[in-house]
Amino acid sequence: MGNPNGKGIPSKKALCFPEKGGRKFGVKIWEEALRWDMDDVMEFLFPKEYSPVCHQIAVDYLNYLIERGEITVGDKHDFCRKHECSLNTLNKNVIPKLYRFGLIRRTRELPKNAAWRPKSTRKSIEHESLQFSTFLKKIANEWEALVTTGRMKRRHQIQQEKDKEREIQKQERVEWERYLREIGE
Questions:
Q1: What residues contact residue 88 under an 8 Å CB cut-off, 6+ apart?
Q2: 42 and 63 share one domain
Q3: One domain, residues 102 and 182
Q4: Same domain as 151, residue 125
Q5: Which of 73, 75, 102, 179 could cross-link to 132 by cystine, CB 3.0-4.6 Å?
Q6: DSSP letter, residue 91
Q7: Which residues have C-beta within 8 Å of that of residue 179, sequence separation ≥ 6?
Q8: CA 83 – CA 40 distance, rounded (Å)
Q9: What is the pLDDT at residue 51?
Q10: So what's the pLDDT on residue 138?
């Protein structure tokens, strides 16, 4: 199921976020008006400093996919020849991670005039997908809701404490005035 020896999440299942403050991205991460390109987005899945080859293949492959709309097996061979990259790296490292994180979706094509068997070769066709952005938006919205709720609860608690303190002070003032009246009489 997991990694029993506690060495963390395998890189094929992990996103890589920039260091605290996002200095690596500079103003790009904070300015909403600045648009990112594919290179910036792939920095989270295949960081250049850890896997420069997979990073470049992923950037080129996704640009190619967005340009075409779908990619068949023949298109993958053409892509690898054109970009001088390994088909094995594309099929074993890049495409599975892109699929796992929802940047692409796959459909399988059965061989023509052949009965399907578990070991039959079914050709994969990749399409672009918005599942990645949907998940991240949901995560971000839920985190924002949790933080906002926590802040509101704290403010409400602080306000209740202030109200209690005012009530105590008011009660003490009333008792003090009553005491002064009793002494003065």
A1: none
A2: yes
A3: no
A4: no
A5: 102
A6: I
A7: none
A8: 20
A9: 86
A10: 94
- In this model, does residue 152 exceed pLDDT 90? yes
The distance of Cα 74 from the centroid of its chain, to the nearest Å, equals 31
Under 8 Å CB-to-CB from 40, ≥6 apart: which residues? 25, 28
* pLDDT per residue as tens digits for the range 89-119: 888 889 999 999 999 998 887 766 666 665 5
Q: In total, how many domains does the chain have?
A: 2
Per-residue tokens: 24: 């690596």
The residue to which tokens 């996103």 are assigned: 15
User: Which domain does 123 fall in, by range?
Assistant: 1-111+119-129
- 44 shares its domain with 100: yes
User: Side by side, which strands form the sheet with 70-71?
Assistant: 70-71, 123-128, 104-109
Q: What is the pLDDT of residues 37-46, one digit of tens each?
A: 888 888 888 8
Contact 178, 185 (CB under 8 A): no
- Do 8 and 94 fall within a single domain? yes
Residues in the chain: 185
Asked if pLDDT for residue 23 goes beyond 70, the answer is no
Q: 72 and 144, same structural domain?
A: no
Q: Is the pLDDT of residue 1 over 60?
A: no
Q: Helical H runs in 95-130?
A: 95-100
- CA dihedral (97, 102, 107, 108) positive or negative: positive
Q: At what angle do helices 52-68 and 73-83 cross, to 10 degrees?
A: 130
Are residue 101 and residue 20 in the same domain, yes or no? yes
| Residues 25 and 86 reside in one and the same domain | yes
